[in-house]
Design a protein that fits this description.
There is one protein chain. By secondary structure, the chain is an all-alpha fold. It has a domain at 24-88: 434 Repressor (Amino-terminal Domain), CATH 1.10.260.40. Helices cover 66% and strands 0% of the residues.
């Protein structure tokens, strides 16, 4: 499956199901984002400049003030060259990431 079809599949999922961030909040996604920052040696400022995502967006995720939107996660997945599932997979918490 090509990349655009793959991302379209997730956008469709988000439109028709309650998205994972509605249950878990931005803190869990920020944790995954922070792991990528550490692994790559990047800062939120660098990522913000490179992607066009406002730096305060990351702070809002970290504090739980806002929940990540799929368009931002797609940008970050492409930027860090990871699959979108990287941000949606919280199995280490003992919870699955699909709605029942």
């Amino acid at each position: 499956m090509n990349t655009s079809k793959w991302y379209s599949k997730y956008i469709t999922f988000v439109k028709h199901k309650q998205w994972i961030s509605a249950r878990k909040g931005g803190e869990k996604v920020y944790k995954k984002f922070a792991e990528l920052l550490e692994k790559t040696g990047k800062t939120t400022y660098q990522v913000s400049k490179d992607t066009g995502i406002a730096e305060n967006t990351f702070s809002y995720w970290k504090s739980g003030r806002s929940k990540p939107k799929v368009d931002k996660l797609i940008i970050l997945a492409r930027y860090f060259n990871v699959p979108l599932e990287y941000f949606l997979d919280f199995e280490e918490d003992g919870e699955d990431n699909a709605e029942s």
